[in-house]
Predict the 3D structure of the following.
Amino acid sequence: MVKFAVICASNMNRSMEAHFQLQARGYNIQSFGTGSAVRLPGPTPTQPNIYSFGTPYNQIYTELTSQDVNLYTRNGLIAMLERNRKVKTAPQRFHDESAFFDVIFTCEERVFDAVCEELLNRAGVNSRPVHVINIDIEDNHKDAAVGAKTIIELARQIVASKDLESDMDRVIEDVQNKMPHPLLYTVGFY
């Protein structure tokens, strides 16, 4: 079974929407963030809510509902956290993960760059390839749902492949032609 990871900056919106949808379809999926902390909108643009990776979604949910349930319901954070806590316990940071994946999906170019840099820092000592595919997804709830559809189509074609090494360029080209998101692709090594 192909082992997938999906990664955004905070492991809150884009990666968790894709994680939720892929998991519901039976894929072997984990999700992560690459930021230094989990950042969520706050009462003003200059007052974000900042959490450490590993802070349980339940705790974040409780804190935000006690701060201003109306604000965080209106901006979609409450619904997002309700979804997230059904999927896993807490946001996780990719840099702290030691598991190997066959395919890593990233949700924006700076996350793609951070993942590729982390793989280079690990020095490929296991000589184990990993396909890294970036799907450029705006960080809002609507685009996260649309982006998850692109990731699902990629996963579907990857799992259907008899020879992923030979088929990956075709898969990328086919999905790029069908779906609205620009894609970047590289092979890294663990």
In short: The beta strands are 3-8, 28-33, 38-40, 49-51, 103-106, 129-135, 183-189. The chain has a mean pLDDT of 96.
